[in-house]
């Protein structure tokens, strides 16, 4: 039997057919075009899955489930997307609508949850059953896997790890609150801090690496400049690791997972990021080394994590 | 059948025999005397339970389980207390040792987890299956109940809600970290903030209510003085509610429970505490009123919560 996994993104709908060994046998994508009526988007999701089934010569009755990772506040139990800011969605019956195209069960969850599940089933946390994933992109998504299953919280809107406060009264967050983890450890947050530092220190190498145009700042530049011992950049990187370390320590004190995973462009820094983070949380987690301290690792599946995770819902 | 619940405290061992309707049929306590060898403490726990069984005329074979709520970092799976600072315990085989006195299964968990479970089974969250409890005492304990069961985390040392950071780089916490929730919303934290405010504002009513001796400050005085419109006290109470509200919003964004419970002396303030808190979290929780926002309530079972919870492990 096969399972289909769909990763619903703001730009593209990606889908794959996954076998029992967690291998993606066929995958493809179509543009999301978020401004369309949701029914059209969901029809394209169904067509894409059927297309992929055709490509591997499988029939629909060989499909045991279809899973979808959706952005926003997802109610897994009722199959509804309660709210998605990017999509302009409110109370969209995603599972029900998609179910009109299939006879097998449909499962939905938040996209970060799916990525976390994918990494636990087939990726960087494959040997474990308990992991936390932080997706460090424009925002910060959180996925929590407990005993091999997605932890949803009792009501929709749980596991929003990026929307816990890090700095009381700090930077405004996209969620309306101040000082959330997302405002500091997202790529957006890192870039903002690097821009400010470069602006204050005109002789910082970061200015040169931007070609003198701070709007060209990205998350790689402060790490590159820090490597060259640029002081302003080293301070930005140090702060970033401290912020992320404090946030991870909070999640460890709550969930005590086997492993903490990170994904997003900043993971290109690999050991330069995960090494100091693993060391940092050892110094701040509750009960210190008297309790279990997980390793911090980078996710390895990239886009496939969401597809494999959705297929495993 | 009956179940025994034991609440192991720094001063007293409290125990009760609980029936299937969650009623305590007999209860009693003996001094803990924490400095003794752990074997003696555990023998007293067993003797107390057998004594209580005798009082209700029941026999040991009518006991289906014995549960213990212990302070510290508890490994429920192995039945070990990994670490308890107050007791000077490290890797104590509590369940195994207690098991030498009984033929029925022994279960152990952290004391705050037991209090949370007790309130869900028979107290302030009786109609729900998903609740968070914060015990606001000398420290801050956290208990998380999901689907009617204690959430332990994957390894011992999870659900330490009091040891998540609230103010980055803030007050030193007992755990060695800075700015933890515990350092601000424990009774100790509230008293520290009230003392500082009274010291700065010599004309604050709080000084008078202390009899001019700031070492006599307690958690009730700032609330009493705020009621009389004392400005310094009103600021202390406002800050306290904001700190607690921010912490609760973090837990809601992670767990989305049906209800959030508070216990400890500060709960004597009842609606003056829970009213503003429920209102505050509505303004800061992720997705605002588009997602479920739980009510903040005071726990109602007092000391019985730990006994009933332990009996339900």
From TrEMBL, chains A, B:
- In the UniProt record, the signal sequence range is none
PANTHER family given in the database record: BIFUNCTIONAL UDP-N-ACETYLGLUCOSAMINE 2-EPIMERASE_N-ACETYLMANNOSAMINE KINASE (PTHR18964:SF149), ROK (REPRESSOR, ORF, KINASE) FAMILY (PTHR18964)
Check the record and name the SUPFAM superfamilies matching this protein.
Answer: Actin-like ATPase domain (SSF53067)
Cite the PROSITE patterns for this sequence.
ROK
Q: Give the record's family classification.
A: Belongs to the ROK (NagC/XylR) family.
Name under which the protein is recorded = ROK family protein
Which species is this record about? Roseburia yibonii
Task: Offer one Pfam family short name for this entry.
Answer: ROK
């Amino acid at each position: 039997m096969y399972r289909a996994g769909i990763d619903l993104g703001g730009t593209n709908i990606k889908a794959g057919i996954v076998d029992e060994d967690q291998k993606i046998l066929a995958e493809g994508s179509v543009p999301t075009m978020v401004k369309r009526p949701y029914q059209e988007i969901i029809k394209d999701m169904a067509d894409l899955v059927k297309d992929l089934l055709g490509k591997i010569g499988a029939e629909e009755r060989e499909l045991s489930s279809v899973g979808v990772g959706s952005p926003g506040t997802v109610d897994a139990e009722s199959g509804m997307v309660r709210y998605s800011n990017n999509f302009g969605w409110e109370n969209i019956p995603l599972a029900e609508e998609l179910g009109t195209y299939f006879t097998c069960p449909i499962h939905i969850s938040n996209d970060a949850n799916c990525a976390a599940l994918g990494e636990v089933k087939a990726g960087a946390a494959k040997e474990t059953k308990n992991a936390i994933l932080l997706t460090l992109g424009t925002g910060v998504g959180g996925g929590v896997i407990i005993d091999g299953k997605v932890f949803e919280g009792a009501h929709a809107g749980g596991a929003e790890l990026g929307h816990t406060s890090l700095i009381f009264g700090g930077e405004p967050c996209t969620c309306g609150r101040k000082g959330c983890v997302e405002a500091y450890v997202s790529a957006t947050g890192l870039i903002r801090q690097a821009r400010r530092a470069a602006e204050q220190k005109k002789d910082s190498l970061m200015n040169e690496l931007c070609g003198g145009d701070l709007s060209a700042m990205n998350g790689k530049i402060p790490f590159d400049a820090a490597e060259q011992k640029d002081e302003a950049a080293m301070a930005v990187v140090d702060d970033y690791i401290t912020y992320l370390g404090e946030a991870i320590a909070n999640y460890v004190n709550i969930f005590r997972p086997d492993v903490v995973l990170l994904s997003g462009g900043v993971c290109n820094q690999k050991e330069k990021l995960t090494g100091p983070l693993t060391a940092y949380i050892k110094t701040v987690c509750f009960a210190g080394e008297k309790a279990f301290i997980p390793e911090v690792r980078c996710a390895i599946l990239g886009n496939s994590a969401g597809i494999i995770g959705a297929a495993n819902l």
